[in-house]
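User: Could you go from structure to sequence for me? I need the amino acid at each position, not a summary. C-alpha cells:
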C-alpha cells in the first residue's frame, strides 16, 4: 500500500491485454514496485463477474431505482404475475423519423394493428428527425403522432409510450446521459395521452422482475474516438 496517494508508473515495456482502453477506465496493473516507481508488465481490465455474484453482496437492496425499498427482481408476486401474463410484450423501435411520410404511415399501421392486443409499452427511440431541422417542425410532428395514437381505442389507455431521445435530437448538448425531450416539445402528445413517458438516454426500465437498459448510441464509435491504446492484433470487433 502506498500512503502518498500517487505512484509514478512506467509503461514503456507493458503488455496491453485485449480491449479498448479509454480515459477514465478502471484497469488492473501487474508489475514490480522498485525505487518508488511501478514498472508495469501487464495492463488489463478487471475480470467479469456474473450478476448473481454481485447481487450476493447487495441482498434485496434496491440499487436499480424506483420507489420500492427492495429489489423488484426478487418479488415472488411479480414473478407469478409475469408467468401468468405470458402474452405480454414490449415493442422497441429505433430511428423513428417523424418527418418521413413512410415511417409515419408504418407507425400508424403498427398502432392500429396492436389496438386489439396492446403491448405493455412501446419504446420509441430517436433520432426523431431524418433531416436536420428546427424545433418547431419536430413539435408539429409529435402533434401528428398524437393524432395517430388518439385514433386507437384500447392502446392509448393501456400502453405506455416511452420516448428515448438520440444524441442528435434538438435541445441537447452532445453529452451523455442525454436529458429527456423538453416537455414543451411534446406537449401536444402528452395532453392527449397521459401515458407518455419522457425518458433519459440511457434509461432503465422495470417490467415485473425483468430489468432492461435502453441505450441509444453508437457506443463503439465513441470508444474508438476516445481510445488511448488500440488493440495490436485481431479484428476490432473481437476486442469489444
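Assistant: Here is the amino acid at each position, in order:
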Amino acid at each position: 500500500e502506498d500512503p502518498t496517494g500517487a505512484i509514478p508508473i512506467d509503461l514503456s515495456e507493458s503488455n496491453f491485454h485485449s480491449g479498448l482502453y479509454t480515459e477514465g477506465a478502471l484497469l488492473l496493473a501487474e508489475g514490480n514496485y522498485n525505487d518508488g516507481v511501478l514498472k508495469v508488465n501487464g495492463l488489463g481490465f478487471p475480470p467479469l463477474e456474473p450478476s448473481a455474484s454481485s447481487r450476493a453482496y447487495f441482498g434485496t437492496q434496491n440499487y436499480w431505482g424506483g420507489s420500492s425499498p427492495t429489489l423488484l427482481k426478487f418479488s415472488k408476486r411479480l414473478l407469478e404475475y409475469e408467468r401468468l401474463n405470458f402474452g405480454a410484450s414490449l415493442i422497441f423501435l429505433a430511428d423513428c423519423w417523424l418527418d418521413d411520410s413512410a415511417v409515419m404511415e408504418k407507425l400508424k399501421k403498427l398502432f392500429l394493428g396492436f389496438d386489439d392486443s396492446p403491448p405493455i409499452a412501446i419504446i420509441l427511440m430517436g433520432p426523431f428527425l431524418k433531416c436536420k431541422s428546427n424545433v418547431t417542425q419536430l413539435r408539429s410532428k409529435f402533434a401528428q403522432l398524437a393524432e395517430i395514437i388518439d385514433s386507437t381505442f384500447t392502446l392509448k389507455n393501456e400502453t405506455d409510450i416511452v420516448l428515448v431521445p438520440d444524441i442528435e435530437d434538438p435541445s441537447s448538448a452532445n453529452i451523455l446521459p442525454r436529458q429527456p425531450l423538453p416537455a414543451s416539445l411534446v406537449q401536444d402528445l402528452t395532453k392527449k395521452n397521459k401515458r407518455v413517458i419522457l425518458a433519459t438516454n440511457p434509461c432503465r426500465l422495470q417490467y415485473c422482475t425483468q430489468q432492461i437498459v435502453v441505450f441509444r448510441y453508437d457506443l463503439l464509435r465513441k470508444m474508438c474516438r476516445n481510445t488511448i491504446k488500440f488493440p495490436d492484433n485481431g479484428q476490432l470487433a473481437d476486442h469489444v
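One structural detail worth keeping in mind: The CA atoms of residues 93 and 124 lie 5 Å apart.
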